[in-house]
Amino acid sequence: MSRSVLVTGGNRGIGLAIARAFADGGDKVAITYRSGEPPADLVMRGVLAVRCDITDAEQVEQAYKEIEAAHGTVEVLVANAGITRDQLLLRMSEEDFTSVLETNLTGTFRVVKRANRGMLRAKKGRVVLISSVVALLGSAGQANYAASKAGLVGFARSLARELGSRNITFNVVAPGFVDTDMTRVLSEEQRAGIVAQVPLGRYGRPEEIAATVRFLASDDASYITGAVIPVDGGLGMGH
User: Fold this and answer.
1) 32 - beta bridge partners?
2) Which residues of the chain fall below pLDDT 50?
3) pLDDT for the residue numbered 9
4) Catalytic residue among 33, 145, 203, 223
5) How far is CA 51 from CA 14, 35, 66, 67, 69, in A?
6) Which of 39, 180, 182, 219 is least buried, going by the fewest C-beta atoms within 10 A?
7) What is Dmax (Cα atoms) for the chain?
8) Among 164, 96, 157, residue whose Cα is nearest residue 129
9) What pLDDT does residue 189 have?
10) Long-range contacts: 214-220, Cβ < 8 Å, 24+?
11) Beta bridge partners of 29
12) What is the pLDDT of residue 186?
């Protein structure tokens, strides 16, 4: 049965791969995006694209109204939208720190809270939060990003306990280094240095993250909640 799926930050990178995977599986998919334009192939797949800045509560509310009018109550939420403002601690401004937390953590709070209105009424739902290997491993120059992504783990696990009795699952996917526009700006030397740390010896593909997300939203994962699933080529094992 076709479900109503929302992927935040779904116009590029990992979010785009997730949106494509759900659409190809027959679900009714909506994405939010803050800038740029969604790829044309999403339109061909019937994906609804809604411009929305998740740091603005009014925009989040309006986006949900538009999505619900077109696809019905959101049954699967993938909270993927996020930003980076990398900087060493002593050079990091308060705005560098707070803006990353406002988008990655507080923005996720907004979209999850709004989705759970309908999920509570339906007494079912799937929520998948996209974190990062950096949340568990740490990374110099990314204290703000790591803090925001680590916060998603405590957030998801608290809600897994709070709403498990309502048949709503909350899980976290922690990608490692994935071949996206964000990592392609690195120099060849930087990319080689990263790959050298990965036991599988390569970058991940966005489609590999998407496959894990789809599994967590499937019936096969109905007894999984509060889990943190690394998809990182072994980079963060032991953390």
Assistant:
1) 8, 50
2) none
3) 96
4) 145
5) 18, 8, 11, 11, 16
6) 219
7) 52
8) 157
9) 85
10) 214/18, 214/21, 214/22, 214/25, 216/126, 216/128, 216/169, 216/171, 216/173, 217/5, 217/22, 217/76, 217/78, 217/126, 217/128
11) 5
12) 74
C-alpha 200/C-alpha 203 separation (Å) is: 8
Neighbours of 154 (CB within 10 A): 11
pLDDT at 147: 98
Q: Which two tokens stand for residue 123?
A: 């007494």
Residue 133's identity, in one-letter code, is: V
Give me the phi and psi of 169, to 5 degrees please.
Answer: -100, 150
pTM score > 0.90 for this model? yes
Tokens 């280094």 belong to residue? 177
Q: Is 145 a catalytic residue?
A: yes
| Three-state secondary-structure class, residue 63 | helix
188 burial level (CB within 10 Å; 0-12, 13-18, 19+): exposed
Q: To the nearest 10°, the Cα dihedral for 94, 98, 100, 103?
A: -160
Amino acid identity of residue 206, one-letter, is: P
Query: Are the C-beta atoms of residues 31 and 19 closer than 8 Å to each other?
Result: yes
User: What does the DSSP assignment read for 82-146?
Assistant: -------GGG--HHHHHHHHIIIIIHHHHHHHHHHHHHHHHT-EEEEEE--HHHHH--TT-HHHH
Would you say how long the chain is, in residues?
A: 239
Quote the mean pLDDT of the chain.
95
pLDDT at 192: 87
Residue 193's CB: how many other CB atoms inside 10 A? 11
HSE-up of 43 (CA within 13 Å, CB side)? 4
